């Protein structure tokens, strides 16, 4: 019996750049059966009027719910509507032609042998055109590697471009809303691994991705620069997961804890020892220890 799989794309918007968003939507609209847009900020609605297409459904939130909560709204709707796969997308990602078809074909092939939670692409930094390495953890260590010649299994991946079978959310769960933003995609990957799923990178597919607002070099290490409120969530969520997550191996949690301090010193240097970095780190550490999670009430004003 022949049947056709249903595939939807899910994009969360937060103060998007008009032209990048138009390119993002245009690159995937003809590749999916439905395009779900969750708006997490004020937006010029005329931007979305460029796309008068019955495939598109738009939900406007009254305030910023965070990436996890916004994605969960879309995931629930798409699950209820019986979509087989969901493609997660950042608002500035651009997908090559046949991306969804190639991901579907790769999933069908791999799922015969493995329990697949998500298939992900490689990413190229749109600012410096360097390819992001893949990540694999073992004991206390986090390894970065590049292997473009085959399918690679990793321990974590950026959410944009993730091609996920909808039924996986029933087993693994949806995104962790209390993190609000940052570490959300990694934490979901770790939960999937804990359920004996595989996270796969299809290195035949490469998409552009922006990490931070610019990149800065310090000796041989490159650090992305973010808006100040993002530093808070990077610090707080990393500390929180390292202290309290029971679905991450203890060795990984130790590595994450020390990684947060590495980020602190890196961001401190690229921000030229701005006093706000000290203030943000102190607040994030305090909030993580006392499990004050979700959206911070005052950090967005820093």
Keywords:
single chain; 302 residues; alpha/beta; Spore Coat Polysaccharide Biosynthesis Protein SpsA, Chain A; 2 domains; 9 helices
> Please, what is the CATH homologous superfamily of the largest domain?
Spore Coat Polysaccharide Biosynthesis Protein SpsA, Chain A
Domains (count): 2
Radius of gyration: 19 Å
Shape: globular
Major sheet strand order: 3-2-1-4-9
The level 1 CATH classification of the largest domain is Alpha Beta
What is the SS-derived class?
Answer: alpha/beta
**Number of separate helices:** 9
**Number of distinct beta strands:** 12
Q: CATH topology of the largest domain, which one? A: Spore Coat Polysaccharide Biosynthesis Protein SpsA, Chain A
Distance between the termini: 59 Å
Content of β-strand: 15-25%
Encode the helix/strand succession as letters: EHEHEHEHEEEEEHHEEEHHH
């Amino acid at each position: 019996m022949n049947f056709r799989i249903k595939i939807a794309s899910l994009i969360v918007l937060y103060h998007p750049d008009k032209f990048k968003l138009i390119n993002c939507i245009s690159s995937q609209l003809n590749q999916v059966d439905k395009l779900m847009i969750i708006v997490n900020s004020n937006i010029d609605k005329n931007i979305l009027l460029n796309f008068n297409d019955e495939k598109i459904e738009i939900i406007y939130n009254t305030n910023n719910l965070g990436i996890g909560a916004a994605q969960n709204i879309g995931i629930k709707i798409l699950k209820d509507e019986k979509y087989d796969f969901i493609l997660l997308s950042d608002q500035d990602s651009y997908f090559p032609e046949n991306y969804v078809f190639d991901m579907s074909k790769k999933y069908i092939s791999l799922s015969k042998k493995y329990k697949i939670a998500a298939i992900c692409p490689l990413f190229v930094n749109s600012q410096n055109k360097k390819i992001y390495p893949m990540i694999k953890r073992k004991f206390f260590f986090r390894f970065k590697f590049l292997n473009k010649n085959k399918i690679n299994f990793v321990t974590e991946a950026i959410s944009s471009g993730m091609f996920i079978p909808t039924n996986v959310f029933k087993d693994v769960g949806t995104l962790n809303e209390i993190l609000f933003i940052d570490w959300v995609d990694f934490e979901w990957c770790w939960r999937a691994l804990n359920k004996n799923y595989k996270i796969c990178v299809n290195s035949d597919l490469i998409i552009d991705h922006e990490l931070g607002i610019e990149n800065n070099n310090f000796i041989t290490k490159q650090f992305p620069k973010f808006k100040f409120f993002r530093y808070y969530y990077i610090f707080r969520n990393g500390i929180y997961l390292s202290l309290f997550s029971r679905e991450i191996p203890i060795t990984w949690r130790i590595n994450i804890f020390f990684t947060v301090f590495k980020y602190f010193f890196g961001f401190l240097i690229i921000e030229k020892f701005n006093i706000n970095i000290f203030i943000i780190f102190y607040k994030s550490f305090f909030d993580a220890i006392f499990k004050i999670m979700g959206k911070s009430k005052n950090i967005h004003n820093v």
